[in-house]
Structure formats: structure tokens, C-alpha cells
Design brief:
By secondary structure, this protein is mainly alpha-helical. It contains 6 helices and no strands. The two termini are 56 Å apart.
């Protein structure tokens, strides 16, 4: 008789982790999906915001340096033109998959946009008059700084109050009950007496009794 002696005794350190079931849900998938949606939202906001910034700068420079309009009047009118451009972009591109458009949503958009214009104008005034950034390049730098800070405010309020995500009950009605991620749908098992070629126990017992009585 041969006895095999192991060099290392079995212990907890030798225990292997059980293999992961292919049907077990991936808990990191929802987190990756949430980050992906946020990144896509930021990209779309940047596209719409970038077009609004272009409109803002073009109108600002035409009014201030081409037509001799006052600096504060020029920045306010340029911001209002960009606000109208942004609404069209958010409404039909960036947030077109959000809740249904209502009169309340339009009012909230222009109310928060008005606050954004006020914030942008105050920042521009502080840079233009306070820091004496009055030249063609300096005034555009002041405008860019005010737009950047006001855009952060707009992004937060637009996604939170103006274009919010659908509520869970709305998503349930729109898309139906969602299945758990990673868990396949299992059909209801067949009853034993409904399987093809199967017989009920009472029928099999009667058949055996009949055979034994022969």
C-alpha cells in the first residue's frame, strides 16, 4: 500500500473560490451604465453649449466693436440670443428623450436662463469695469470667463429642474417591467403529468397490478 504525503496540509489558504455562475448579475454594470449616460449627457450639453457660445461671441462682437453698442447692452443682448439658440438645441437634441414638454418646462427654462444671463452680466461687468479688460482681446477674455462660470450654473439647473429624468413609474409605463440584468428569463416548468409520454402515478400502479394478476 502506498501512502501519498502532501507537502502542504489542506487549509483555508488552499481553498479555491467557487466558479462564478454565468447567470449571476454583474453589479458593476449599472454603475458603468450610469457613468456612460452622464458622459453622453455632458457631451451633448457641450455641443449645444458650444453653439450657444459661438452665437454669444458673434453677437457680442458685432454689437460692441462693429456697431458701437455699450458693453453691458452688448453682453446682455448676446446672452439672450445665445439663450434662444440653447433652448432649441436642448429641446430637440440634448434632452429630447426627457419628460414631455409643458408650459411649466418652458417657463422654468427661460427663468433659469434669465438668472444665467444676470450672473454672466455681473461677472462680465466685474471683469470689464473692475479689472479694466476693455480692449478687443481683453473684452473677449472677460466674456469667455463669464460664459464659462455661468454655463456651469446652467448645466446644473437644466438637468435637475428643467429637463429632469423620467420618474420610475413613467419609465415603467413607457417600457414595461424590466428584467433583472444578467438573469435570464425562466419559463414556468412543466408539471410532471404534462410532460410528453408521462403517466400519472395512479395509472402506473393500476397497470402493474394488472400485470401481476395475470
Amino acid at each position: 500500500m502506498t501512502v501519498h504525503v502532501s507537502d502542504s496540509p489542506p487549509g483555508p489558504q488552499c481553498a479555491q473560490r467557487p466558479p462564478r455562475s454565468p447567470h449571476s448579475p454583474d453589479r458593476s454594470a449599472p454603475e458603468r451604465g450610469r457613468l456612460g449616460r452622464l458622459a453622453l449627457e455632458i457631451v451633448k450639453f457641450g455641443i449645444v453649449g458650444g453653439s450657444g457660445v459661438a452665437v454669444n461671441f458673434v453677437v457680442f462682437n458685432l454689437l460692441l466693436h462693429a456697431h458701437g453698442t455699450g458693453p453691458m447692452t452688448a453682453t446682455v443682448l448676446a446672452s439672450c440670443a445665445a439663450m434662444a439658440s440653447n433652448y432649441l438645441g436642448f429641446r430637440f437634441f440634448a434632452y429630447r428623450d426627457r419628460a414631455a414638454r409643458t408650459q411649466r418646462q418652458v417657463v422654468l427654462f427661460f427663468a433659469f436662463s434669465g438668472l444665467g444671463v444676470l450672473l454672466e452680466s455681473l461677472l462680465f461687468s466685474a471683469a470689464y469695469h473692475g479689472a479694466q479688460l476693455t480692449g478687443p482681446l481683453a473684452s473677449n477674455a472677460a466674456k469667455a470667463l463669464s460664459i464659462g462660470l455661468a454655463s456651469a450654473f446652467r448645466f446644473l439647473v437644466y438637468r435637475t429642474w428643467v429637463f429632469p429624468h423620467d420618474r420610475p413609474d413613467q419609465a415603467h409605463q413607457a417600457h414595461g417591467p424590466a428584467r433583472t440584468a444578467g438573469v435570464p428569463h425562466r419559463a414556468r416548468p412543466f408539471a410532471p403529468d404534462t410532460l410528453p409520454g408521462s403517466r400519472r402515478p395512479a395509472e402506473r400502479a393500476d397497470e402493474r397490478a394488472a400485470r401481476s394478476g395475470r
